[in-house]
Specification:
Blueprint (H helix, E strand, L loop, with lengths): L56 E2 L2 E2 L4 H13 L5 E4 L2 H4 L23 H7 L10 E4 L3 H17 L9 E3 L3 H7 L8 H18 L3 E2 L1 E3 L1 H6 L4 H21 L4 H4 L3 E7 L3 H21 L12 E6 L11 H15 L4 E3 L12 H16 L14 H23 L3 H6 L2 H18 L28 H14 L2 H17 L4 H10 L3 H12 L8
Parallel strand pairs: 1-10, 2-3, 3-4, 4-5, 5-6, 7-8, 8-9, 9-10
Keywords: Isomerase
Protein name: Methylmalonyl-CoA mutase family protein
Subunit structure: Heterodimer of an alpha and a beta chain.
Length: about 525
């Protein structure tokens, strides 16, 4: 559990409980010269020239309402300088329910875009050149992730694209299903992990430019993890995937270069930078020494960063512009490959158009006005940053050893170890805010009674148009073909074979997201988290 930092000028620890000296000197904190950028273990970055070689992707998150609503927002962001697409899906879609399902109706279009069928996927990306624009699909729960990817692949197929034309990322994280954002019916961890790995295996064989998984350290962090735990859980999850893929007969160097991560950028500026540097170092060494990876790209930890949503406040929301800008700066100084800056009104609602563009232009200011991208790893050699990097690395290894002792990450989830630590950290953090030992400007210090002048964004009507589309889909499809496809999916899932081929056939036949996901819930749903 993290040590709570003291909120004074003589703060003794980082947010993760790492001791901080008042002054760092060469005598007390000698700096070992890190390897050059682009060389294992990649402490200083994954490319020799970093952003002078390839700028980070400006990948702003968007999603709300119907596919048509979100398509307009995605195209707006691209027109204003976004270089990639990052689509968030609503609560029902992430959890594998159709918009008209009784459990889902109230949430249709909330928190993301509603997608129920391949027809929705066609509308979602209409007019976007899928062979030129990298697409991030923010669906994390394996109960639905493979289904949504199948819909994307079939929608692209209808537009004439081949699988090898498509570049992008799917979250596809079993811990989101079983630990972080649980659904009414949670898949058993081992089965959720298996579905996740099915997608990795299928993309290795058929969609070569696609990152089939993105370990959602960001969401572990939002659920309570500190920086060290976030990095450790990402590496542990990557190890679990790699070991399962090797067990299935795939040498590590055939697939490891397509594994990616999704990190948070939170308030403790220097600890965040050290986290990214240490995570790359640990990842590279673990993949080389434990898994036998020989290719440099197999040992590279490539990741997207989103600035911390949990750090944003509903009080004095314009302060969030400053928070997100500093978070983004930490991500860039730490060497991110891709970045989303959270909008100032996200603690109140889905971002308004104005707030979304302000967040987008925060990235443009960072890239084009500050000069932070002119040299790789500009903080290398700092006694403080190098010391923190070493400290984070050591603590990550300690957590990895504890996870191994439990039998690996899937077993740690099944036993409730991950839940226990995330909940304990979240509780301690909130206590520190409540008793004032942790300052949150506008919440427990420097408060203002001025009225709020932010008009929250209102999600357009979603349920009715989605219900109408579902009625027309079900009336017009070949019912016998759909039933046969879902039966084939059930047989495949029960037999242990890869579920992606029958998912693609079910989607082509007109099966809905909820119908496909229900097959998985029927077989392995109803798991109860070990919360004690």
């Amino acid at each position: 559990m993290s040590v709570r930092p003291q909120d004074t000028q003589t703060a003794a620890t980082t947010d993760a409980g790492i001791p901080v000296d008042a002054v760092y000197t060469p005598e007390r904190h000698p700096v070992r010269t890190p390897e050059p950028p682009g060389e294992p273990p990649f402490t200083r970055g994954v490319r020799p020239l970093m952003y002078r070689e390839r700028p980070w992707a400006v990948r702003q998150l968007a999603g709300f309402g119907t596919p048509e609503d979100t398509n307009r927002r995605l195209r707006l962001l691209l027109e204003h300088g976004a270089t990639a697409v990052n689509t968030v899906f609503d609560f029902p879609t992430n959890r594998g329910y159709d918009s008209d399902a009784p459990l889902a109706r109230a949430d249709a279009g909330q928190g993301g875009v509603a997608v129920d069928s391949v027809e929705d996927m066609v509308a979602l990306y209409a007019g976007i050149p899928l062979d030129e624009v990298s697409v991030s699909i923010v669906v994390s729960h394996p109960v639905a992730a493979g289904v949504v990817l199948a819909m994307y692949l079939v929608a692209a197929e209808r537009r004439g694209y081949r699988p090898e034309d498509l570049a992008g990322t799917l979250q596809n994280d079993f811990m989101m299903e079983t630990v972080v954002l649980t659904a009414p019916s949670v898949l058993e961890p081992a089965f959720a992990f298996r579905l996740s790995t099915d997608v990795v295996e299928y993309c290795l064989q058929h969609v070569p430019r696609w990152n089939a998984i993105s370990y959602t350290g960001y969401n572990y962090r939002e659920a309570g993890a500190d920086a060290v735990q976030e990095a450790a859980l990402v590496v542990a999850h990557a190890v679990a995937t790699a070991e399962e893929m090797v067990r299935r007969g795939h040498p590590v160097d055939t697939f490891a270069s397509r594994l990616t991560a999704f990190f948070s950028a939170d308030n403790d500026f220097f600890e965040e930078i050290a986290k990214y540097r240490a995570a790359r170092r640990v990842y590279a060494r673990v993949f080389a020494e434990r898994l036998g990876a020989r290719e440099p790209r197999s040992r590279m930890l490539r990741y997207h960063v989103q600035t911390a949503g949990s750090a944003l406040t509903a009080q004095q929301p314009l302060n969030n512009v400053t928070r997100s800008a500093y978070h983004a700066l930490a991500a860039v100084l730490g060497g991110a490959q891709s970045l989303h800056v959270s909008a100032y009104d996200e603690a109140l609602s889905i971002p308004s158009e104005s707030a979304a563009l302000t967040a987008l232009h925060t990235q443009h200011i960072l890239r084009h006005e500050t000069g932070v991208d002119r040299t790789a790893d500009p903080l290398a050699g700092s006694h403080y940053v190098e010391s923190l990097t070493d400290a984070v690395e050591q603590r990550v290894y300690e957590l990895l050893a504890r996870i191994d002792a439990l039998g690996g990450l899937v077993a740690a989830v099944e036993q409730g170890w991950v839940h226990k630590h995330l909940l304990a950290n979240a509780y301690e953090r909130q206590l520190a805010i409540d008793d004032g030992t942790r300052t949150v400007v506008g919440v427990n210090r420097f408060r203002s009674d001025e009225p709020l002048h932010i008009d929250p964004f209102r999600v357009p009507a979603t349920l009715e148009p989605q219900e109408d589309k579902l009625r027309r889909l079900r009336a017009g499809r070949d019912g016998a073909r759909v039933r046969a496809a879902l039966d084939a999916l059930r047989d495949t899932a029960a037999s242990g074979r890869n579920t992606m081929p029958p998912l693609l056939e079910a989607v082509r036949a007109g099966a809905t997201l909820g119908e496909c996901s229900e097959v998985f819930r029927d077989l392995h749903g109803g798991w109860r988290q070990p919360l004690i």
